[in-house]
Amino acid sequence: MNDLTDLEKLCIHTITTKPWTIEESIEHYARAGVQGITLWRDALENRNRQTIRKRIQDAGLNIVSMCRGGFFPGDTAEKRELAIEDNLRLIDEAADVGAPHIVLVCGSEPNISLEESRQQIMEGISRIYGHAREKGVKLAIEPLHPMYADSRSAVNTMEQANDMCETLCLKNVGIAVDIYHLWWDPHLQEEIKRAGKSDNIMAFHTCDWKNPTTDFLLDRGLMGEGIAPIREIRSWVENGGFKGYVEVEIFSELHWKKDQKTFLEEIIQAYKDFA
Amino acid sequence: MNDLTDLEKLCIHTITTKPWTIEESIEHYARAGVQGITLWRDALENRNRQTIRKRIQDAGLNIVSMCRGGFFPGDTAEKRELAIEDNLRLIDEAADVGAPHIVLVCGSEPNISLEESRQQIMEGISRIYGHAREKGVKLAIEPLHPMYADSRSAVNTMEQANDMCETLCLKNVGIAVDIYHLWWDPHLQEEIKRAGKSDNIMAFHTCDWKNPTTDFLLDRGLMGEGIAPIREIRSWVENGGFKGYVEVEIFSELHWKKDQKTFLEEIIQAYKDFA
């Protein structure tokens, strides 16, 4: 039983084992003693969400989070409206499947300034907030690495996410702390502390930054394969009062090529050794 | 003459037209009305530095800077000593060729923490400072994009470069502001202002951040090809009292494949239109 006890905080994102169907991920995670699962929206395509919810419960897994909403900025009102509608649908999907929160990759519109993108993000979050509250789904702002500032997120540091939470001042809006995006930031420790004080740390994502990293998106490292101070950052997050799961979120062409059962064993070992 | 007047602040880094020899770069830059040249060390390999210096003067170009020193951190004392020796040689080379300063890509050692790397960078700069003063060569710390924190530089924001300059408190140590590395930073304007107040802006590098960017190193954009707020950042730098050159520094497999005369024409047009 010792192995299972060790894994009590381990959650895996379905995208980490992308070659598997959602059913395969549920089965293999549960059998390996993984405790939590974060659902990527694509994994639910053409599935009955109630069926998946029940399958996850029956397997003894907890649904930790739903990835991902956001992408609020747009250079036309029409684009921004489409984003709102999409986020509202995602909230429904998260509620159906029983995910306590959705992760927001906030977006960045290249044709407007970063400041303007951030304004549109705050407007977008405010627009969907009412529906999220009604459905009992929380919203986690995920600051992304500055290398994504042109496209995926105009929120690029923990400080910006904290500022945004303070400005919005909405009860169920918090932050997803992701090591991959934030490990380099000299203000990370103090800003995690700040988020902890406001009880705003809603999720914690782990993986590693490889040296060298060869792709902007699909070359994340398994914990221990890179140089991020993974345990140190986890200790900051947990010292900040966070008691939730350690979510393994890895996009990697390299790891996706492997037999995913082997990869799952490697994830569990890396979690024990380095996370 | 109007064209030449327009170009009075235009400097080009030899690496921008990498397929050319140093002699070809000098000839073509001068003929096109470019006023300044920044020398990359590799362009001087197997050359007599006095000859190059004279050739540049005869062509009517000004030597703006020498790229690049730094890479101070190392996980052994031996590696750090090698870096010091290399930087001392670079200072000699810069003095020989008449470059007023060298740019420091400070380095980052993956086997130690970023804080420790920064300590070693400060120690390294202090070690070479005496020789640099003696030779009349200034030192410009260049903060690099956080995507290089694992390897090329543990100095990743303008704030960190300012902090470093204040801690070192050395007369001839300043900062090279590079749009590519810093455009995303929400504190950039205030930190440029801070550097300006201390008279610490020593160089200004321009290019563009492409959306999407497909390579970590060799996919920089010509001004106007991307989404960085180039003119706005230049105005911050110049409002901060900087009167020096606008240095075009582009590493791009795409542009290097072109006929470099055509590329030079494009650089000049992009400089007029977007820089």
UniProtKB/TrEMBL annotation, chains A, B:
Provide the Xylose isomerase-like TIM barrel domain boundaries. 28-260
Q: Which residues cross the membrane?
A: none
Q: Which Pfam families match?
A: AP_endonuc_2 (PF01261)
SUPFAM superfamilies in alphabetical order: Xylose isomerase-like
Keyword tags: Isomerase
Q: Which residues form a coiled coil?
A: none
GO MF, one annotated term: isomerase activity
Q: Superkingdom of the source?
A: Bacteria
What's the protein name? Sugar phosphate isomerase/epimerase
Write down the species: Oceanispirochaeta crateris
The lineage is: Bacteria, Pseudomonadati, Spirochaetota, Spirochaetia, Spirochaetales
